[in-house]
């Protein structure tokens, strides 16, 4: 724990000082959160480049850490030192004395941190009889990420090759796992490194989202509401909660401690008898941030950039400034562009959304063309080499990512009913907020919905986020249609300031409107809060690796070369994942979702295990060095173990045997 926190703290310091290059006025908390994300981006890129030449080692990690801390030299500059001291004094001043608002603020951030700790503590659980996870949706993803991490720490996987599909470039955004691997290289445990990295990124994400909503709405209350709406997002699945409770025999407290189901992600029968519906939206913490660690890294980085894009779009003085101020604005745009440029290997879909918003904002404010040009040049400087590297030698087929597909993942369900069930009253409230903002454009008398002259800008800035929703409902943006969520979630994030502002305005209207606002908020978060509670409270416990698998992985690390190639069943939880060694092919579900055509290779794997006449030829064709035979190979592939008995057994644990082929 100490090693993880120490390194992540140093990374945060370097990133925090980097924020002074583009943001003159900001709170210390925001700088620390942005610093954690930016510092991690710089650190991961440095580790990636150095490890491609020298593999992952202690000195590679330490040199990368020193490079991340280079912004310390900014303290040589007088104005930077003054700004740092000013932010520190402001932070001290905020906590001097006690007021209700200060206490509420402190409790809010403390509670947020504690909740995230208990939640991410369930991502990976090490027990005496194996490895578990506390979230059902994380079963396959945990193994995938562990496979990536161990491929870096144990398998010398540089330049990164897809550990699940030997011979192909690793184009899945792997930087979050690379940071974890770097912490492990310095002596941290995998579990502790993952927990602290995820908790700090998660905390940063929600603080940065709060700031994003606040900058757009000018309402601190709306900022906090927006963060909570993302954390506990859900739909009308809580209706199934009442159904499950009333058909059971437990009291409410017992039932809450042992929730039997998820209420934001599942196929089920509707409350109305015989009315089929599906819950596919999910809760972001449950289905995105704990499972897709790249998203947990990419979204806060994208929020830093999106907040700056709003600043440029909203700022009237940007195009009128002269001399030093204008040059500073152009330089800041270049720096933020560089921050956006880190996204291809962190989370490519986030880069797509950021560039779409930036392009749209640039077209609408062409008078600021120098700032926009600086932004795109900065982004291209970092992103272009990353994209060129990722695209060359990749097994991913680009044509698999774009196709017409109506209704996202609604299946046979009516699209309008589907979205009401999955997001509840969120879309009606969003439409109400948009209508009220439109009315402000024509209102001549009375109190406006927005107390400042931002109605037109707010709606224009929202357009690309709205397009994310429309495009994701008419086209498939990934091989697996559900993965459109990677773009849809940005529609949700872009909509949050509008819905949060509506709830904040109603709350401020008086006693009875407050009851209405509180009720609407409760409906919006009830289902999501149930799912988050179910995970954080320990109601779920799923084994992803038994003790024999863990022991076999340790044996493999000792007796095989780091780059050894294994043949194993294409399942999501092979012990080879935990060894860091390469596999000819792993879980077909992951490969399909990454756009890889695995069909021929899967057929060859089956031929080898079935001891077909071409089995030996195929072993030579793929240069297989070791073959694993365990329960999955015997049950799923009907492995002919007698065919492999002529080869020596080099490792054996329980029902698992490893045969050395050459």
What does this structure look like?
The chain is α+β, with helices and mostly antiparallel strands. The strands form four sheets. It has a five-stranded mixed beta sheet with strand order 9-8-10-12-11. A three-stranded antiparallel beta sheet has the order 1-2-7. Strands 3-4 form a two-stranded antiparallel ribbon. About 1% of the residues have low confidence.
Summarize the structure.
The chain has 28 helices and twelve strands.
Spell out the key features of this protein.
28 helices; alpha+beta; 662 residues; 12 strands; 3-stranded antiparallel β-sheet; single chain; 5-stranded mixed β-sheet
- Number of DSSP helical runs: 28
* Distance from first to last alpha carbon: 41 Å
Number of strands: 12
Beta-strand share of residues: 5-15%
Order of strands across the biggest sheet?
9-8-10-12-11
Low-confidence blocks of residues: 269-275
Topology record:
Blueprint (H helix, E strand, L loop, with lengths): L1 H17 L9 H27 L3 H11 L9 H17 L5 H21 L4 E3 L2 E4 L5 H15 L21 H11 L4 H28 L2 H12 L6 H10 L4 H6 L8 E4 L6 E4 L4 H6 L3 H22 L8 H19 L6 H17 L4 H23 L11 E2 L10 H9 L2 H17 L12 H20 E2 L8 H23 L3 H26 L5 E5 H13 L5 E3 L7 H5 L2 E2 L4 H6 L5 H11 L5 H7 L4 E4 L1 H5 L5 H4 L4 E5 L2 E5 L2
Parallel strand pairs: 8-9, 8-10
Antiparallel strand pairs: 1-2, 2-7, 3-4, 5-6, 10-12, 11-12
Helix pairs in contact: 1-2, 1-8, 2-3, 2-7, 2-8, 2-13, 5-8, 5-21, 6-7, 7-8, 8-9, 8-13, 8-20, 9-20, 9-21, 13-14, 13-15, 14-16, 15-19, 18-19, 18-20, 19-20, 20-21, 25-26
């Amino acid at each position: 724990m100490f090693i993880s926190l120490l390194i992540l703290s140093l990374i945060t310091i370097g990133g925090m000082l980097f924020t002074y290059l583009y943001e003159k006025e900001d709170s210390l908390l925001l700088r620390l959160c942005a610093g954690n994300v930016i510092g991690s981006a710089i650190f991961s890129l440095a580790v990636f480049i150095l490890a491609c030449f020298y593999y992952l080692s202690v000195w590679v990690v330490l040199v990368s850490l020193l490079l991340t801390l280079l912004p310390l030299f900014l303290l040589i500059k007088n104005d930077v030192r003054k700004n740092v001291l000013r932010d520190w004094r402001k932070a001290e001043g905020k906590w001097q004395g006690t007021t209700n608002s200060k206490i509420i603020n402190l409790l809010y951030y403390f509670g947020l941190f504690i909740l995230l700790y208990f939640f991410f503590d369930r991502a990976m659980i090490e027990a005496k009889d194996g490895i578990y996870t506390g979230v059902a949706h994380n079963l396959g993803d945990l193994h995938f990420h562990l496979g990536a991490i161990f491929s870096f720490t144990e398998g010398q996987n540089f330049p990164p090759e897809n550990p699940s599909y030997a011979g192909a470039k690793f184009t899945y955004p792997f930087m979050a796992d690379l940071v974890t691997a770097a912490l492990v290289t310095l002596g941290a445990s995998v579990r502790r490194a993952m927990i602290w990295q995820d908790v700090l990124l998660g905390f940063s994400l929600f603080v940065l989202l709060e700031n994003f909503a606040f900058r757009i709405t000018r309402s601190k209350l709306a900022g906090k509401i927006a963060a909570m709406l993302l954390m506990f997002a859900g739909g009308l699945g809580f209706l199934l909660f009442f159904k499950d409770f009333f058909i059971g025999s437990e009291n409410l407290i017992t039932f809450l401690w042992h929730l039997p189901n998820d209420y934001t992600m599942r196929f089920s029968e509707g409350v109305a008898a015989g009315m089929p519906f599906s819950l596919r939206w999910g809760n972001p913490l449950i289905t995105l941030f704990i499972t897709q660690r790249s998203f947990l890294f990419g979204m806060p980085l994208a929020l830093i950039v999106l907040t700056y894009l709003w600043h440029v779009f909203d700022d009237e003085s940007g195009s009128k400034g002269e001399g030093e101020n204008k040059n500073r604005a152009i330089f800041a745009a270049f720096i933020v562009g560089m921050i956006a440029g880190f996204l291809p290997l962190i989370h490519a879909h986030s880069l797509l959304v950021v560039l779409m918003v930036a392009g749209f904002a640039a077209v609408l404010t062409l008078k600021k063309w120098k700032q926009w040009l600086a932004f795109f040049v900065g982004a291209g400087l970092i992103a272009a080499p990353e994209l060129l590297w990722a695209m060359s030698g990749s097994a991913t087929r680009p044509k698999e990512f774009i196709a017409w597909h109506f209704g996202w993942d609604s299946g046979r369900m009516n699209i309008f009913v589907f979205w009401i069930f999955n997001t509840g009253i969120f879309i009606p409230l969003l439409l109400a907020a948009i209508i009220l903002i439109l009315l402000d454009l024509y209102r001549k008398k009375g109190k406006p919905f927005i107390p400042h002259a931002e109605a037109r800008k707010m709606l224009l800035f929202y357009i690309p986020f709205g397009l994310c929703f429309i495009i994701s409902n008419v086209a498939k943006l990934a091989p697996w249609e559900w993965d459109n969520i990677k773009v849809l979630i940005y529609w949700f994030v872009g909509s949050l300031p509008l819905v949060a502002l509506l709830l904040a305005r109603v709350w401020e209207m008086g006693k009875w409107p407050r009851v209405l606002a509180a009720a609407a908020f409760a409906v919006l978060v009830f289902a999501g809060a149930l799912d988050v509670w179910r995970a954080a409270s320990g109601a779920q416990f799923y084994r992803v690796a038994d003790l024999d698998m863990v022991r076999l992985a340790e044996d493999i690390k000792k007796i095989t070369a780091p780059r050894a190639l294994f043949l194993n069943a294409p399942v999501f939880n092979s012990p080879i994942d935990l060894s860091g060694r390469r596999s000819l092919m792993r879980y077909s579900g992951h490969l399909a979702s990454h756009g890889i055509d695995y069909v021929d290779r899967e057929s060859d794997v089956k031929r080898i295990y079935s001891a077909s006449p071409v089995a030996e030829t195929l072993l030579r064709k793929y240069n297989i060095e070791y073959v694993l035979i365990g329960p999955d190979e015997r049950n799923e592939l009907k492995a002919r173990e007698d065919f492999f008995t002529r080869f020596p057994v080099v490792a054996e644990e329980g029902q698992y045997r490893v045969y050395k082929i050459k």
